[in-house]
Amino acid sequence: MTAAVAELRPTDGTLLKVRELDKHFGPVQALYHVDLDLPYGQVTALCGDNGAGKSVLTKCIAGIYQPDHGQVFWEGNPVHVRNARDAAHLGIETVYQDLALADNLDIVQNMFLGRERLTNQVLLDEDSMERAAKETLAGLRVTTVRSIRQPVASLSGGQRQSVAVAKAVMWNSKLVIMDEPTAALGVVQTRMVLDLIKRLRDRGLSVMVISHNLTDVFEVADRIAVLYLGRLVVQDKASAFDLQTVVQYMTTGGSGPTAGSRTKDS
Amino acid sequence: MAGVAPEQAADLTAAPEAAKAEVPPELIAQTLGEYLRAYGARIRAGESGVLPVIAAMFAIILVFWAISPNHVFLSPVNLVNLFQQAAVFMVLAMAEGFALILGEIDLSVGYVGAIGAAITVQLIQPITTNWNWIPAILAGLLACTVFGAIQGTLITRLRLPSFIVTLAGFLIANGIFLKILLLGPFSGYPNLAGLSDNLQVIYNLMWGTIDPTVSWIGAGVVVVGLGLFMWLGDSRRRRSGLVAPPPSLTLIKIGLIAIVAIVVVAICNANRANLGTLEGVPWMIPIVLAVLGAWTVLLQRTKFGRYIYAIGGNPEAARRAGINVSLVRTVAFALCSFTAGIALLLYASLLNGMSNNLAGGQYVLYAVAAAVIGGTSLFGGRGKPLHGVLGGLVIAAIYNGLYLQGISQVEWQYIVTGLVLLAAIIIDAVSRRGASSGSVTRT
Prior knowledge:
The structure holds 2 protein chains of 2 kinds. By secondary structure, chain A is of the alpha/beta class. Chain A has a single domain (2-101, 157-252), classed as Rossmann fold. Chain A contains 9 helices and 12 strands. In chain A, the strands form 3 sheets. In chain A, strands 6-9-10-3-11-12 form a 6-stranded mixed beta sheet, sandwiched between helices. In chain A, helix 6 runs parallel beside helix 7. By secondary structure, chain B is an all-alpha fold. Chain B has 18 helices and no strands. Chain B starts with 15 loop residues before the first helix and ends in a 6-residue tail after the last helix. At the A-B interface, strand 8, helix 5, helix 6 and helix 7 of A face helix 13 and helix 14 of B.
């Protein structure tokens, strides 16, 4: 293993490498020997059926769960991400499906929640936070909100997703993990979020998108990785797949022609 | 407003009118006309701010003025009396606000505050301990804070419902309060009568008056200071392209504050005595304003305050943002009890001592009702100290008005308290429903 580790220290444009990651909960083996590469500046889609281990893998990377075995390399260095704070320190931010926004707070307040700027050590520096939030939103071309001082409760689903993403990229993050970003959205809103993901990539960020929606996956992803019953069965450039093969990997763990009968609709 | 999109219309899936209605009007309006229209839309959607409670207050004042014998309701004597009664409700409602914004409730505030007030009144008695008033007040407030911190710890660390923990606290505090009353040779009624500077200071909290000239100067300083602060702050934000209300609105707000200050000082400066002179602003007004100012700054301008709102809005989001949720909630419960101590100290001053006549349970309901009538939500995340002050005034006006009608029997007070509380909860729930029925779907 040590020899392999030394060999794996990458200078090959890989931001995050996961090697031989195992995670079990009691008798349930949620992840088994998972190897995953997330290159710099690319969108990687993580696909898999329900229970395939997508969320567990994400949470292991984001520091919510500790893997039982295996190693994570960040920019070539082995790291232990013990909690969300460690992850944020490295530059890993996660946008969860429920977005974790406080409805009663406005956009600026949400974007700076837990990391408020202060004047003279005591009072909140609202002006500076509002300016920074405005810049970030403008940089992501999130322009449909009427005012960044409106409470998040008054935003549409896509706008809320945008605020959650803007909150994640504000902190010089290098990797943004998005859990089902388009799951609850309508057509226009989905468009808005997919464009936003592309803009993150254009800014040089790595993005990992977890999604069931293969149409969305093929639209934004540069790379696709498929989990099947806790094993990472395939990862490659998106152009190496078509919709049918991804579905086969997701439902059978392989690409053989015997698959197909267990296909579930999305 | 700078930064507002030219392509607003791109967001088609949200119901446009509902979304518009929920936006605070000062954020999307550039002129006063737009502001008023936006405000109208918002009231219809149930997010109304403080205007309804002010309207309700005017209606109540008008009714009681009309029906009170000789229109005595609006006489300076009665109005100052009303302010004094309101002070206890106001401060107690500000205390309850901490729990309500968290999305919790504190049923114990009445008797927990009473413990503090009873300790203070006992400690300053010249024939027993004869403490100086400053350490005596601090000791009383410290006892309240400790009681609140214990309740907060039980609620957060053991994850017990605040309703039950503070119900138990209500009973326990009631018992401790009665025990403290029985200490010393006062037959359960330690009072403020007697020749002692310390007794006099506590009595003056409610009854002492400030010289009329000084009252005017003080009011002038407060209004000019606050006005300059608001005007300069808003102008600076407008200049740097940040979100700010239109200048006319800032001016109207400052004007309203000035009018309120002038009216209140004018009422208090009228001679209220039948013989001799009794004039000037009672000490209790700057005390209430100090609590209002301090808690407004704490809640709106500090990290701690921001975290209380965040926890009330979405505890999970607060936790993921790295906020120490348990600590913030515990401290908020401690501050709630601390503030209740101030409220009951004013009560002791108003009634010239502490006795077992205190209806601590009723005061809790008045406090919750005052906060909710003022605009604080029972469902967490929304509310301001100012709401407690406005709601406290409404409650005191009803209480006082009924009293002037001779409807002072305890059964009517209970019934009216219950009805007012019910009305406040209905308004809160209905306005919430109105607000959420029109808004976009949430995941």
